[in-house]
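Hi R.,

Here's the chain you asked about this morning:
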Amino acid sequence: QVQVVESGGGLVQAGDSLRLSCAASGRTFGSYAMGWFRQAPGKEREFVAAMRWSGGNTYYADSVKGRFTTSRDNAKNTVYLQMNTLKPEDTAVYYCAAGFPNNATLLYEYAYWGQGTQVTVSS
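And the predicted structure, written out as tokens:
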């Protein structure tokens, strides 16, 4: 079992920045990935960014590419999502997930999920 806890959400104005953190604990034998997804009211959960632990490959949704950056701290088993130039359309509950996906952008390939952290961007 892997436990996933995300934090760092809040209320900000358009153009501001936030950094989300996601810590994974438990046994993570072998290579795994950690992904970021978000869900706005009335919408499906969508892919935001992901990091493959081995090699550090990163992936981004077109909507956030160039604004968001995901990175890791190996010693802490923690991944970060640095969100810059936030827009009102970024408002959503952000979820961190861990697993062993073949395709790290697909939410259904992640087995372990955090409870989410709210990000609200006002205009």
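Residues 47 and 105 are 6 Å apart (CA to CA).

Let me know if you need anything else.
M.
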